[in-house]
Structure formats: C-alpha cells, structure tokens
Specification:
single chain; alpha/beta; Nitrilase/N-carbamoyl-D-aminoacid amidohydrolase; 6-stranded mixed β-sheet; 14 strands; 24% helix; globular
Length: 259
C-alpha cells in the first residue's frame, strides 16, 4: 500500500438538470491544483435524489458514463459517484467506478430508501464490490446503505477504505455523522462520506458534513456545510500499524450474508 490521495466533492446540485451539473462539476475538477488518485462525487450527481426515473434515467454508455470516462482519463484518477441508469424495464441508482484506462465497474444501491418510495421505483442491487487502487482495497456504497452494518461489515479485512456517496438530508445529520464514525471504528478502516449541500427541488435542505474518518474513529477531514473540493491524504502506515497493534478483526464473528 502507498499513501492514497482522495478528493471529496461537496457541492449543491442543479435539480434534475444533468447538463448543468456535469458542466459545474467539470469546472470544479479542472480547478484542482494537485493530482488525486480517487475523486468522489455525491449520490445521483447529475440530477439530485429524484424518484422521477422514467424522466431522468439514461442507459449505460451515454452522457454521464462518457463524461466519467473522459474526466477520469483527463484527471488521471478514478472517479466515482451514482447516477440514474435504465436497463430494459428496470431503473437503478447505480454507482459507477471509472478508472483512467476506461475500465469500470458498477454497484447498484442495495438498500433503497423506502421513506421516499425509492424501492417502488428502483431495483435493488444484489451485492457489493471491492476495488483495488495503489494497493488499497476500496468498497464504495450509497447513502442509506450506511444504516446497515451487516452489509457493510469488513469481513477478514476485505477492504481498507469504505466510501458512502450520499444525498443525506440535514434533518438527519446527527445519524450521518454518528454512523460514519461507527463504520470506521467497527471495521478498523478509513471511511469517506461525500454528501451534497443546498436545497433540492422538494425543498429539502442538505448540510453536507462530508468527512473522512480514520480507523481509530478520528476525524481526518470534516467539511461541515462548505462548498468545497478537498483533497485528503490517507496514510497507509497508519491503518497497517493500528491493525497490527489492535487486531480486533481476529475475534470477529463468522457469518454468511444472504442477499
């Protein structure tokens, strides 16, 4: 493992306006003054968190996908975030993990937010992915997944960094901040949560609170409600030394996850 530079993109989003959001995000990425290994965008970064999937969804290999591929190549970094994707008669809240080479992987949100009716519109994913970057194993998840520790569980140290991309409202900011720290502590891993700010088309406010938490549960970075593109360096030595000094994973309960 080498030290890893990750970029948190905390921003308001234009409501249901993919072109405006892609143009805004592209401008922010081009203003970055130093290189990054991984750029993290919010959940549904082209539209905001909307249930109007029939209006907003696009197939894979169209606008958002091509934009991600172009930006990853230009920035020489992995870029990830979720968008609304249509496949046949199904809609997915799909995270795309785009590498500079054009290789990619996807994760479809497993836990759909029923309080907004997400489960009535979107199809749930069936499992998670773990990607490798500079010797790091990275597991990217989406928003409401944060509330389900069994699904996020770091069995046998299968990942070093857990990511949550989100549209998490300000009214539940205490839960967001508390659960991010809990996931880091219980999994002995770094956790990066990237949330949006501003108000969406349903007049729902978002306070951001994007953060990076270390494996001891300490804040490495916290953005509060600022609009910011922040590059954070994760120390490989820190997580390796702590896991060696405090190997709680060796006493973890063994289980199989039924999906």
């Amino acid at each position: 493992m080498q030290d890893l530079k990750i970029t948190l993109v905390q921003t308001p989003l234009f409501w249901k306006n993919s072109g405006a959001n892609l143009a805004m995000l592209e401008e922010k990425l081009w203003q970055m003054q130093e290189p990054s290994d991984l750029i993290i965008l919010p959940e549904m970064f082209t539209t905001g968190f909307s249930m109007d999937a029939s209006e907003l969804a696009e197939p894979m290999n169209l606008t958002a996908f091509k934009w991600l591929r172009q930006m990853a190549a230009q920035k020489k970094a992995v870029i990830t975030g979720s968008v609304i994707i249509r496949e046949g008669d199904h809609y997915y809240n799909r995270l795309i993990w785009m590498e500079p080479t054009g290789n990619y992987d996807v994760y479809d949100k497993r836990h759909l937010f029923r309080m907004a009716g997400e489960e009535k519109v979107y199809t749930a994913g069936s499992g998670k992915i773990v990607k490798e970057l500079k010797g790091w194993k990275i597991c990217p998840l989406i928003c409401y997944d944060l509330r389900f520790p069994v699904f996020s569980r770091n069995r046998e140290n299968e990942y070093d960094l857990l990511i949550y991309v989100a549209n998490w409202p300000a009214a539940r900011s205490i839960a967001w901040k508390t659960l991010l720290r809990a996931r880091a502590i219980e999994n002995i891993a770094y956790v990066a949560g990237v949330n949006r700010i501003g108000t969406d088309g349903n007049n729902l406010p978002y306070s951001g609170d994007s953060a990076v938490i270390g494996p001891v549960g300490e804040y490495i970075e916290e953005l509060h409600d600022r609009e910011e593109v922040k590059i954070v360096t994760l120390s490989a030595a820190h997580i390796q030394e702590f896991r060696q000094r405090f190997p709680a994973h060796l006493d973890a309960d063994s289980f199989e996850l039924e999906l």
